[in-house]
Amino acid sequence: MTTAQALRVFSKAIVSDGVLDDRDIGMVTEEKKQVIRESEALEFYAVTETPDDVGGLDVLKEWLKLRERAFTQEARDYGLPAPKGIALIGIPGTGKSLTAKMIGGLWRLPLLRLDVGSLFGSLVGESEERARRALRLAEAVAPCVIWIDEMEKALAHGGLDSGTSTRVFGTILTWMQEKTASCFVVATANDISALPPELLRKGRFDEIFFLDLPTREERRQIFDVHLRKRKRITHDFDIDRLAQESEGYVGAEIEQAIIDAMYLAFNDHREFTTDDISASIKRQVPLSVSQRETISALRNWLREGRAQSASFREVQDAEKQFVSLPLEIEPREC
Q1: I need a labelling partner for 269 at 20 to 30 A (CA). Which of 100, 157, 255, 291 fits?
Q2: pLDDT tens-digit map of 225-257
């Protein structure tokens, strides 16, 4: 906050209870959120997710945990640079957005979502100024996590808007390359064909991770996460059976199967069971079937060595156990 904004909120806190102490932290935080909202393009997310709320993705989690203290003065004294960011590419519903929220919780940093669509204005030069203002505000909040969701849509640029989107895109790219503030960028995307090559080159991101269809072990973890989230005891369910029957399903589809089973049992005035979840799974048509060609193209992109698998160890274990996925992919050496 600026000096004037800080003075205003401190005065408000003193007037409310006659003293300024740690009980007023919530009021100061709310004032900061309001300042962020005024930027029009940044949204503050209160993060509560932890690595335990994300099933699988052990390679990605390990990468993040190694950098958990990366923004401390101890790391600076050691000579380590602050991490720049990661790109999460992959199949819809595999937990890319959830992972972005989890990073904020793991590192205990503010999570700001950059809504690139809100940057565009009707006046000449307005869009570029909004972009610069939002990025300056993000640097003022640093250290923080900046989340750009579905960046292939947000940063799609063409020649139908007199070059405005191209200039905004260039402003963001330059900032990602040259920023000195500790702003860790988490960019997610589903369609890599729509991403310009200059976005994914080294220097913009520390690493590019691919989130694939969950393997059997990952599906077990996902069922466990969502059952615990709904305050159920996982031992009351046959998780191994459900993991086997949900082959080819992404995390979002597994969650929906549990919700559908709960609705069915709730209307029957009883507790839902493994059979209910199994029936819900069988009624769904997963993305691995309805979007087979698209998913195959995404997995070929990984096979070409353009990204690191977020679940490499799980993929390797799955192959040893002869657990095949609907669209088989061979793991590469990392």
Answers
A1: 255
A2: 999 999 999 999 999 999 999 999 999 999 999
Contact between residue 207 and residue 85 where contact means Cβ atoms under 8 Å apart? no
Q: What is the DSSP annotation of 203-243? A: TTBSEEEEE----HHHHHHHHHHHHHHTT--GGGS-HHHHH
**Residue type, position 166, single letter:** T
Does residue 235 sit in the same domain as residue 100?
no
- Same structural domain, 134 and 270: no
Q: What is the pLDDT of residues 164-223, one digit of tens each?
A: 777 888 888 889 888 888 899 999 988 777 777 777 777 789 999 999 999 999 999 999
Any idea which residue has 């958990």 for tokens? 68
| Residue 268 forms part of a structural domain | yes
Domain extent, residue 146, equals 30-211
Number of domains in the chain: 2
Q: Does 14 map to a domain? A: no
The residue among 214, 231, 131 whose CA lies nearest residue 172 is: 131
Residue from 62, 89, 214 nearest 148 by CA: 89
Q: Provide the CATH number for the domain around residue 238.
A: 1.10.8.60
Domain boundary residue among 161, 186, 211? 211
What is d(CA 314, CA 310) in angstroms, rounded to the nearest whole number? 9
For the record, the structure tokens of 285 come out as 């048509």
Identify the CATH number of the domain in which residue 65 sits: 3.40.50.300
Separation between Cα atoms, residue 179 and residue 236, nearest integer Å: 50
State the DSSP string of 135-198: HHHHHHH-SEEEEE-SHHHHT---STTTTHHHHHHHHHHHHHHH--S-EEEEEEES-GGGS-GG
The first and second tokens of residue 76, run together, are 């600076």
Query: Which amino acid is residue 206, in one-letter code?
Result: D
